[in-house]
TrEMBL record, chain A:
The UniProt record lists the keyword Oxidoreductase: yes
Catalytic residues of the enzyme: 62
Homology family: Belongs to the catalase family.
Stated name of the protein: Catalase-related peroxidase
PANTHER family the record matches: CATALASE
Binding site for heme: 332
Automatic annotation (TrEMBL), chain B:
Family stated for the protein in its record: Belongs to the cytochrome b561 family.
Domain Cytochrome b561 bacterial/Ni-hydrogenase: 8-175
SUPFAM superfamilies: Transmembrane di-heme cytochromes (SSF81342)
PANTHER family linked: BLL0291 PROTEIN, CYTOCHROME B561
Subcellular location(s) per record: Cell membrane
Swiss-Prot/TrEMBL GO biological process terms: respiratory electron transport chain
Keyword Nucleus in annotation: no
Parts forming coiled coils: none
InterPro entries noted in UniProt: Cyt_b561_bac/Ni-Hgenase, Cytochrome_b561_oxidase, Di-haem_cyt_TM
Name of this protein: Cytochrome b561 bacterial/Ni-hydrogenase domain-containing protein
Organism: Sphingobium ummariense RL-3
Keywords per UniProt: Cell membrane, Electron transport, Heme, Iron, Membrane, Metal-binding, Transmembrane, Transmembrane helix, Transport
Length: 359, 192
């Protein structure tokens, strides 16, 4: 088969062009070329920077934690808003994790008082709902670029334990939305126990129930137990694992309970910004009771190897238009993949238990 | 196994082009979704898993069909090394097509994630929860995807060389097929 030279050089050029075009499109899709994107790695790096370096093997945020087990007893009322099986009357097993914010797994509880609760709720039909909640009804920032800027600006000065004002001031000037969160924190009581805190969904979600009606919902777990808040003036006097040991001692005596309150958005409520509170009266449904009757160190419990990705939702609950949700999902995944490859390391509570046993 | 006809079986050709589109889309969706914390992440992730399982089902249909109906013989004048490269690359393409969905499924299982195809349909875990295994499979999913894309580029370039430069009927055997000479339906010769 004789090759026609001129025709074939054109053909070679065409084949080359097709390959170059495909490689270029692929590189663009992957974000290797073109406009800069914020990746999951950008978020984990910002968190590591804020925490004064990476702590291999731990979550990049909420690194210090305690596992728990218990149950969720649904009273059936939640089915008015969502088809999710977990809202049908019944008792469902729960695993979860208490944590404080920040990337330091051995942080002192006095330095770091931001409580969080994460849950995995499963119904017998295989539906799964993962929740990652904080003890504040609103979040400091509404989008991931601002979150990264916040991590960079609020890196604590090792000497004072406080952010450098020279970095914070321009950040706050550029992000007036943070003020609502700061005002809330200035007023709010810091819960004296994980058991006396209310835990909020942070973001809004879409609940779809019968007749396919969809409503925006935020939820909160409201504690049955109450107690004094922490003394904000003397936080540095708290023992390193104060909140964790308090919860361990408390749970040995009595289970802790919360009511799941589903809060339905009013027409004027903001659903795409976690920085904005929903104020005034709201239709609120008590969907059931969470009871936590046992706690375990991360070494012994079932929570350590779980990514509490709040976008893992059962049918009947879906993401809202809040862009923070996708960012949380991707950032949690990046953190999870990093620590998975690094291997797990001892938790603060696990260290305490080891020391106790050695005594 | 070689085949009497100069063309691949029509069903195999249809599957080839359907899967070509699906696999290319999948590779672009995959590298795109992992690159961003934007809302595209959840949108693409929701496409990625059902499309991956669709590809797995298609390759499970296609592989037996390919084994049963065979491939047309390559041109006699094609150097032996190129014939071997063709066979090897086809084996690797099948391995990647079947392997990638399995790695993805296994990776999610080891990571303790529900393997959601739709909002209400989940696949069972095929591995126990094991973070070290998850980390390995997660890495493998990326590495094999990039090698797969490189292999597809080589496959496409080779196919276009056959079609545009050698003009030896190899590309045609996977596209429109060869025109049949004469009227006898039994006659099956190439006309190139």
């Amino acid at each position: 088969m004789p090759l026609k030279k001129r025709a074939s050089s054109g053909a070679f050029a065409l084949i080359g062009a097709i390959v170059v075009l495909l490689v270029g499109a692929f590189a663009w899709a992957a974000g290797w070329i073109g406009p800069r994107r914020i990746s999951g790695g950008d978020v984990t790096r910002a968190l590591e920077y804020n925490g004064g370096g990476s702590k291999p093997g731990y979550r990049r945020a909420h690194a210090k934690g305690l596992c728990f087990t218990g149950s969720f007893t649904a009273n059936g009322a939640g089915s008015a808003l969502s088809d999710a099986s977990i809202f049908k009357s019944g008792r469902y097993p729960v695993i979860g994790r208490f944590s404080v914010a920040g990337g330091n797994p051995l942080a002192s509880d006095g330095r770091n008082v931001f409580h969080s609760m994460a849950l995995v709720l499963k119904s017998p039909d295989g539906q799964e709902w993962r929740l990652a909640m904080d003890h504040t009804p609103i979040f400091p920032v509404a989008d991931i670029a601002s979150f990264i800027a916040l991590q960079r600006a609020s890196k604590p000065d090792p000497a004072t334990g406080k952010p450098d004002p020279a970095a914070m001031k321009p950040f706050l000037a550029a992000h007036p939305e943070v003020k609502a969160f700061q005002d809330y924190m200035a007023k709010a009581v810091l819960p004296g126990s994980f058991a006396t805190a209310t835990y909020y969904s942070i973001n809004a979600f879409r609940f779809t129930g019968d007749r396919d009606v969809t409503r925006f919902v935020r939820w909160q777990f409201e504690p049955e137990a109450s107690g004094p808040g922490l003394d904000k003036k003397h936080l540095e006097l708290l023992p390193r694992d104060y909140l964790f040991n308090e919860m361990i001692a408390r749970t040995a005596k009595v289970p802790s309970r919360w009511h799941l309150k589903l809060v339905v958005a009013n027409p004027a409520d903001v659903t795409d910004k976690a920085t904005v509170a929903w104020t005034g009266p709201h239709r609120t449904i008590d969907a059931g009771t969470l009871a936590i009757d046992a706690v375990q160190s991360e070494e012994a419990g079932a929570c350590r190897d779980v990514n509490f990705d709040p976008t893992i939702l059962p049918p009947g609950i879906a993401l809202s238009d809040d862009p923070l949700l996708a960012a949380r999902s991707k950032a949690y995944s990046s953190s999870f993949t990093r620590r998975a490859s690094e291997g797990a390391h001892p938790s603060a509570v696990g260290q305490d238990l080891t020391k106790e046993r050695a005594r | 196994m070689s085949r009497h006809s100069p063309d691949f079986h029509p069903a195999l050709r249809a599957l080839h082009w359907l899967m070509a589109a699906a696999v290319l889309a999948m590779l672009f969706i995959g590298v795109g979704m992992v690159s961003t914390t934007g809302t595209a992440y959840v949108t693409l992730l929701a496409l990625h898993r059902p499309l991956g399982i669709a590809i797995l089902l298609l390759v499970l249909l296609r592989l037996p069909l390919r084994i049963m109906t065979g491939a047309p013989a390559l041109p006699d004048d094609l150097p032996r090394i190129q014939k071997r490269a063709a066979v090897a690359s086809h084996i690797l393409l099948y391995l990647a097509m079947a392997g990638m969905p399995f790695i993805g499924w296994a990776m999610l299982s080891a990571g303790g994630y529900p393997v959601l195809l739709t909002k209400s349909m989940a696949l069972p875990a095929i591995l126990p929860r094991d973070l070290a295994l998850y980390a390995f499979l997660r890495q493998a999913h990326t590495v094999v995807a990039l090698l797969f894309f490189a292999l597809i580029l080589a496959h496409l370039s080779a196919a276009l060389m056959h079609g545009l430069i050698r003009r030896d009927g190899v590309l045609r055997s996977m596209t429109v097929g060869h025109r049949r000479a004469g009227v006898s339906p039994k006659q099956d010769d190439a006309d190139d």
